[in-house]
Amino acid sequence: MWRRFAHLSLSISRTKLQSLQDPTVLKLINTFSSDAGNDGVASSRKPFITFVLGGPGSGKGTQCEKIASIFGFAHLSAGELLREEMSSPSENGELIRNVIKEGKIVPSAITISLIKRGINSATSDKILIDGFPRSEENRIAFEKIIGVEPDLVIFFECPEEEMVKRILGRNQGRIDDNMETIRKRLKVFEDLNMPVVEHYSSKGKVHKITATGTVDEIFERVRQVFASLRYLKAFLSF
Ligand SMILES: Nc1ncnc2c1ncn2[C@@H]1O[C@H](COP(=O)(O)OP(=O)(O)O)[C@@H](O)[C@H]1O
Ligand SMILES: Nc1ccn([C@@H]2O[C@H](COP(=O)(O)OP(=O)(O)O)[C@@H](O)[C@H]2O)c(=O)n1
Ligand SMILES: [Mg+2]
């Protein structure tokens, strides 16, 4: 069982922290103080899990790399893990290829087993899970198998035409970066991924980031969210 993540070995009192009146900090105090321990991953300590969501091409991967390098998070991209699995001699390779080519969602059991392996081998207990959960089915299966909810959800909001422009300029040779698959991915995003964003919004876990502008302008918005985590960390021993 994971130990309480920030098991209240506070250097100052909870009351004093709450007197700071910063809504992000208050939300995180509640998050850190709740015991969501489970045996879903093989760590004695519950990792701090951030889901990073947004439409295809909204800049999730780009921003995650910066968050990882500046704030010391491990970055697990669900799409990247699936592409690696697809290219390895895996029994699921053909299935994954067909699903990705169609812009659909790979069965949760496959994706979650890759994520679980990633969490277990991560060198940081702060984890970014990029591009997951992509559907309510993904979300419910993760919460059941891993046994925790995310501590934080970042949602990149970006207009469709900007996402399409970025994907078409990405040039990574991906089998799904063509106009026919992009259309399907945008529809899957609206139909299946937005309900996940709405679910976590209703739980007060979502930080919505306007994902237009330069990479650095967007990162400045992201940085503020993570800077408040770091600020909180100064008061908590974890
Ligand atoms: N703010 C931005 N402005 C212009 N291009 C961007 C921006 N952020 C990312 N890109 C580029 O857009 C493409 C998609 O970004 P990526 O991070 O792969 O998005 P996602 O992971 O959400 O699909 C990449 O080629 C990336 O370099
Ligand atoms: N949780 C996930 C994540 C990705 N995928 C598949 O992998 C594809 C690429 O995901 P990705 O996250 O790399 O794509 P981008 O949003 O980064 O462009 C998706 O369109 C899905 O087909 C999935 O099935 N389940
Ligand atoms: Mg990506």
Characteristic terms for this protein:
Rossmann fold, five-stranded parallel β-sheet, 5 strands, disordered N terminus, globular, binds magnesium ion, 10 helices, binds adenosine-5'-diphosphate, binds cytidine-5'-diphosphate, 238 residues, nucleus, single chain, alpha/beta
Q: How does this model look, in words?
A:
Belongs to the adenylate kinase family. UMP-CMP kinase subfamily. Catalyzes the phosphorylation of pyrimidine nucleoside monophosphates at the expense of ATP. Plays an important role in de novo pyrimidine nucleotide biosynthesis. Has preference for UMP and CMP as phosphate acceptors. Monomer. The protein is built from 10 helices and 5 strands, in the order ααβαβαααβαβααβα. It has one domain: 3-Layer(aba) Sandwich (Rossmann fold). The protein is of the alpha/beta class. The model is unreliable at 3-20 and 30-39 (pLDDT under 50). The chain starts with 13 loop residues before the first helix and ends in a 5-residue tail after the last helix. The chain has helices at residues 14-18, 23-33, 60-71, 78-87, 93-101, 108-121, 136-145, 160-168, 179-202, 215-233, and strands at 48-54, 74-77, 126-130, 152-157, 206-210. A 5-stranded parallel β-sheet has the order 2-3-1-4-5, sandwiched between helices. Residues 56-57, 60-61, 77-79, 82, 99-100, 103-106, 111, 131-132, 134, 138, 176, 185 line the site of cytidine-5'-diphosphate.
